[in-house]
């Protein structure tokens, strides 16, 4: 008599439970990533708005201080906000002054008030001394 090997009965695989778990994990990861991206964009938008407001305040205060000095009345104050929070705003002084001493005084006033408001602020001098212009 010969022994015959009996093949095991085919066992049906259980329903794919891991597929539902994997789908849940993928959904959680996607929602987390989308939330992080949304928070990042909102933060960048907030910083840009904050920088614009800060630059406007800086310009107004520097212009007010410059305007109080009669000799510096013809000096225009222009500010530029940095594109990010890490880049400081710049204050540009433009216009005509009567002498180099008045130019230096206007620069000193602008640098002093700008540094009090924002320590990293940069003052750019585009002032023209009228004596130099006449020559």
Low-confidence stretches: none
Number of domains: 1
Query: What share of the residues does DSSP label as strand, in percent?
Result: 15-25%
Number of strands: 3
Strand arrangement, major sheet: 1-2-3
Q: Return the string of H and E elements.
A: HEEHEH
The percent of residues in helical segments reads 55-70%
What sort of overall outline do the alpha carbons produce when their principal axes are compared? rod-shaped
> How widely separated are the two ends?
127 Å
CATH topology: Alpha-Beta Plaits
Mind telling me the C-alpha Rg? Answer: 34 Å
Mean pLDDT: 78
Largest sheet, in brief, is: 3 strands, mixed
Tell me the CATH architecture. 2-Layer Sandwich
CATH superfamily: Cation efflux protein, cytoplasmic domain
CATH class descriptor: Alpha Beta
Number of helices: 3
The SS-based structural class is alpha+beta
Topology (SSEs and partners):
Elements: H1 17-68, E1 75-80, E2 90-97, H2 100-117, E3 122-129, H3 130-134
Parallel strand pairs: 2-3
Antiparallel strand pairs: 1-2
What does this protein structure show overall?
- The protein has 3 helices and 3 strands; from the N terminus they run H-E-E-H-E-H.
- It has a 3-stranded mixed sheet with strand order 1-2-3.
- It has one domain (20-134): Alpha-Beta Plaits.
- The protein starts with 16 loop residues before the first helix and ends with a helix.
- 16% of the residues are buried.
- By secondary structure, it is α+β, with helices and mostly antiparallel strands.
- 56% of the residues lie in helices and 16% in strands.
- The chain is rod-shaped.
- It has helices at residues 17-68, 100-117, 130-134; strands at residues 75-80, 90-97, 122-129.
């Amino acid at each position: 008599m010969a022994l015959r090997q009996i093949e095991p009965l085919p066992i049906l695989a259980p329903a794919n439970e891991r597929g539902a778990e994997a789908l849940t994990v993928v959904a959680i990861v996607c929602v987390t990533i989308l939330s992080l991206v949304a928070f990042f964009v909102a933060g960048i938008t907030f910083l840009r708005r904050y920088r614009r407001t800060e630059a406007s305040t800086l310009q107004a205060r520097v212009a007010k201080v410059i305007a109080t000095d009669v000799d510096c009345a013809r000096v225009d104050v222009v500010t530029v906000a940095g594109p990010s929070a890490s880049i400081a705003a710049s204050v540009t002084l433009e216009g005509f002054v009567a002498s180099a001493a008045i130019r230096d005084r206007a620069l000193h006033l602008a640098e002093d008030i700008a540094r009090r408001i924002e320590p990293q602020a940069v003052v750019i001098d585009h002032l023209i001394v009228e004596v130099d212009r006449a020559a």
